[in-house]
Amino acid sequence: MRAEGPIAAGDAERIEAELQDGRIDEILFESPGGDRGEAMRIGHLLRRAGVLTRIPAGATCAGACVEAFLGGAARMIDAGAHVGAGAMPVSDAASTQAPAEREQAAGRWAERQADYYIRLGVSRGLLRLQLDMPAGATCWLTQGAQRRYGVANTAFVPSQMQAAPLTR
Q1: How far apart are CA 123 and CA 56, in angstroms?
Q2: What is the extent of the structural domain holding 25?
Q3: pLDDT tens column, 61-81
Q4: I need a surface site. Which of 5, 73, 120, 149 has the fewest CB within 10 A?
């Protein structure tokens, strides 16, 4: 199955319906990001289903896409794929939220994120990276960083040995 495009509300329910028949064992991701909460719901579904997740060569998976991808029981990133971790989401400085409220919201986000990463076997070093990045920034992870942080937990596929993508 391919998961392409921005992640939006309702995507978790659609993916859950696709997983019901038990015929999906791999999901290929290509997305610029989107709704992080929805992405984490997708990640939890994928983990329960024991699905392999993969970012194929030439594809980009950034921000919320990475959160969904991390749910894979096995996570493969092909050589030539682009993986971008998004900075911690913060409210706009011009918002009506008081600084203390913004700080509390950031703390709650970091706590949820740390719990999610621990459950999926991802290094909290990725969380530290996200907390240190300026708002709205994306950090493009090298293959070494993908392995170090546990974003990829299977061997890389050399570009000449890639399997044909699964489509539905």
Answers
A1: 22
A2: 2-161
A3: 999 999 999 999 999 999 999
A4: 5
Q: Taken in order 51, 55, 56, 61, is the CA torsion positive or negative? A: positive
Q: Are 6 and 33 in contact (CB under 8 A)?
A: yes
Asked which of 3-17, 41-55, 92-106, 129-143 is least confident by mean pLDDT, the reply is 92-106
Q: How many domains does the chain have?
A: 1
Neighbour tally for 74: CB within 10 Å: 15
Output the pTM of the full model. Answer: 0.85
CA separation for the pair 141, 145 (Å, rounded): 6
Tell me the Cα Rg of the chain. Answer: 16
All residues at 6 or more sequence positions from 144 whose CB lies less than 8 Å from its CB, including other chains: none
167 falls within a domain: no
- Where is 30: in which H helix or E strand? strand 26-30
Give 98-150 as a 3 state SS string. CHHHHHHHHHHHHHHHHHHHHHHCCCHHHHHHHHHCCCCCEEECCHHHHHHCC
Residue type for position 68: A
Helix (H, G, I), strand (E, B) or coil at 42: helix
